[in-house]
Structure prediction request, 265 residues.
Amino acid sequence: GDIDQNVLEGLVEEILAFSTYPRNLLRCVFFHPRQSPYIFHHSLHVTLFSILIARQCNFSNERLRKLALAALLHDVGKIRVSLEVLGKKGPLTEVEQEKVRLHALLGFRFLQQQKKFDMPILMGVLQHHERLDGSGYPLQTHSDKTHVFARIIAIADVYDAMTSQKNYGVQHSPFDALAEIRRDISSGRIDANYGRAFLEIMRTNLLGEWVVLSDGRFCQLVGWGQDEKRMLYLQSVDNERIVLVGDSLIKPIQIIPPQSGNVFL
Prediction:
């Protein structure tokens, strides 16, 4: 029932140091084996992505630290949700979904009781599932009422949730998750400035990475269109040049470790 703030703050300092190297950070996320418990890895990844966004937007070190704490704790309310619901294999019922949606409010109240954390941290936890058009939860707040930390954590949370293997739901490729974020920017559901910052981080740091296509080919990402067509420019191990548009039947399904010819490095 009590949070060791010294442990958290030590972890925050390690994360801040690591996040100065975005490409290394992303490679660890993509290639490091991800096992149970889901919430541990998810909370860590959301923190890493949130810090990358904030660094891109020139946050001060003090704000970075507070944002990192909010992101690490964003799902702390799930300790008040039963393991039976959290660990269920298969779709949740409407009642179970409602119980899970309470975690943001429960986390806010739990941290309030600790009396250790500033209000921006509490608001990041409370509002990380809110959407700027009022379609989120638990309070359906709109843009002018949604804290900056919550806006950033929301983007990191969506990306990691979509690309993770969970008990239920589909695991999406990073490219599908980025397309979803782009749609949410266009529809006004998430913050456009922070959303575009995240897209730019990924575009910059994924260039040169290897992917496997849905038809089984291994290709290197050599270019990334920035318009709404979402064009990807790739080169296969046989030096074939490939252009994929967003609605193409062939899609990149996974980022894989670097290759040289047909051999993994």
Q: What stands out?
A: The mean pLDDT is 90. Residues 38-56 form the longest helix (19 residues).
